[in-house]
Specification:
Rossmann fold, single chain, 256 residues, three-stranded mixed beta sheet
């Protein structure tokens, strides 16, 4: 006789969480969801999910997955009044898919373990497209037995699911992934043949006193001196083109 699927709770049904939860629902998992803006969870409710608060989800579900905004949201959700660790039933699993901090992931694991709850960090990579297509890369920090127990659930949402090590290792892997992506973008930008800005944009980065400096010679069109002509300063070594304004990113300060 086939064992019933575990009851799954999903907290945070935004751009990433909603499609991830939808895959679980379509795979036949009994699903309870929560989002601070309830309207964002309504499509899942119409598909058969139940809506409940975080405390009820923790008390009723076998596996609780969280995908919220920032580390402070994670801390409040897990450690706050009626938080997940306090309300979760012994033997249940807490999986935080938020991109958070390794230190917080370890704190959650240790606090949960003292209450007989198994917690892990499982940040994802692949963006909203990966979430919709169930092709996410999921980097898990967990004890080996806990990872094996929830692996079938994680595979519903991601194409690549790897245990990176113990608690906090998933967040470390996600940090490394982000650094690698940023480094690649920086290298591509530096090698790009279009990296040098047009002269008109470069001149817009000069100080106002330089841009307004009258031309030393006569105007090409009238033969008279004109203050509208912009002369290049003797030295622009102290002006970084990487912090120049561009038409689409005014004063962005971006190095890319």
């Amino acid at each position: 006789m086939q064992q019933p699927k575990p009851r799954v709770g999903f907290i945070g049904t935004g751009v990433m969480g909603a499609p991830m939860a939808g895959h679980l629902l379509r795979a036949g998992y009994p699903l309870t969801v929560f989002n601070r803006t309830r309207a964002k969870a309504e499509p899942l409710v119409r598909l058969g999910a139940r809506f409940a608060g975080p405390a009820d989800i923790a008390a009723e579900c076998d596996v609780i997955i969280t995908m919220v905004g920032f580390p402070e949201d994670v801390e409040q959700l897990y450690f706050g009044r009626d938080g997940l660790i306090e309300r979760a039933a012994p033997g249940s699993f807490l999986i935080d898919a938020t991109t958070s901090s390794p230190e917080l992931a370890v704190r959650i694991h240790e606090a949960a373990k003292r209450r007989g709850v198994r917690a892990m960090d499982a940040p994802v990579s692949g963006g909203d497209v990966g979430a919709r297509n169930a092709t996410l890369s999921i980097m898990v920090g967990a004890d080996p037995d806990d990872f094996d127990a929830v692996l079938p659930i994680l595979r519903v949402m991601g194409a690549t699911v790897e245990r990176q090590g113990g608690p906090g290792a998933g967040q470390h892997a996600k940090m490394s992934n982000q650094i690698a992506i940023a480094s690649g973008l920086l290298v591509s930008a530096r090698r790009s043949p279009t990296r040098r800005k047009p002269a008109s944009i470069r001149r817009s980065c000069w100080p106002a006193s330089v841009r307004a400096r009258p031309a030393a010679g006569p105007s090409r069109t009238s033969g008279r001196a004109s203050s509208a002509v912009i002369s290049r300063p003797a030295s622009t070594s102290s002006i970084s083109s990487r912090t120049c304004a561009s038409p689409s990113h005014p004063r962005s300060g971006s190095a890319f």
